[in-house]
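# step 3/5: fold
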Amino acid sequence: MNNKGFRFAMLLLIVLLICFIFMFYQRFQTVKFPMSDGTIVNPLMGWAPWATIEKSEQPHTLVYADLTWRDFEPQEGVFDFESFEGRNQFARWQEEGKRVVFRFVLDVPRSEDHLDIPDWLYEKINGDGDRYDHDYGKGFSPNYANPILIAYHQKAIQALGERYGEDDFIAFIELGSLGHWGEWHIKSDAGIRSLPDEDIRNQYVQHYLEAFPNTYLLMRRPFAIAQDYPIGFYNDMTGDPESTTSWLEWIQNGGEYNQTREENALAALPDQWQIAPIGGEQTSSISAEEFYDSSLLRTIDLLRRSHTTFIGPNSAYRIEQGGSLQEGVDQVLAAVGYRFYIEKARIPDRIIFGKNIIIQLTFANGGIAPIYYNWPVFGYVFNEQGQVVNIFPISIDIHSIIPGKTTLVRCKMSIDSLTNGYYTLGIAIHDPVSKLPAVQFAMQNSRDDRIQILGTFQVRKLFTKQ
């Protein structure tokens, strides 16, 4: 080949290479998003008022329902789900897309003498326990080490699991069963026998673990068994500085369980919040004015140190919307749970050729806790008329996005069916039950349907018939 032919061939090759690059050219844009402040009402977090209420002054996505054994099993082997669900308005809450925090209890102190276990069970254990009348109220504390009681407890929890164990309508279960109010403590200085030792207590825990393998369990204290399972904690003195500080010290350091004097019954689990939820109800030892106003900064500090996800049943639900305490209520709600946002996104700007585009999203959590359940995430593509023209899955384990860390996700978006024009890209976290966008991102957004807009791009394909 002579020099002239060689130069022509090289020029042709360069031209073809330029055309090749041009044809496959895709231009991207990198967009950064700040996290927005303010209140967000999101699923699986926030206020959890009583499920029996007619109205809540404050918006909520959780409700709290407890159940005494006496009400649940009035006759041996006959479980009254209908009354429990009706009394707690389960049909209403399911229709509204809310979920339940649940506790099963055997002893609730009241003003009158009574039993919270069924009469037939009281007879089977021959009254093995202690009737009491002390500062908390009146009631009956059964001997929790009684093998008959333990055996029937397993059957009762198994029945609950068969009803609710496969249904995520029950979001969190606070391990009750033992002690006054199911809080795993007994007023033993009033002459009531103490709770049993660890080997007996763990049998009760195992009943729940077997019946509810897919539901998060929460304990009143960080008992050693929580080292082996993703079990969270709850604090029914939320906002009380002395009690909450002691509770946090149990979680931080472990140590002795003062009810039984077992030296290592409590485990040091300061990072347990990363794998299991923290909840509890607002303390009644201080006023709402102190909780949400005069000691607001202290309240928020205690919540953040606790990594609290929900507060209830005693909570802000009775505080007047727009009243003098509303600002404090909003600040408390903004302080708890998760706050997802997209820190950075590498998305298309202009697409000239191709079938699939790789998008990069950096997920972040500006809250104090994860979401815990792995809800699905989807990308949305809208055309210029605002119609959805593509929905595609985004593979991310969203409950692993913990505060203080970011998660980079690469996902594939098909553009094969897109015609020339401008498009808008969005993202949404779906409720697995409704299969609809359900989580509000902590970001400014132009939509109100919980599909977060990330940006726009142009499709300008070559060699089309258009």
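# step 4/5: annotate
The longest strand covers residues 340-351.
# step 5/5: archive (pending)
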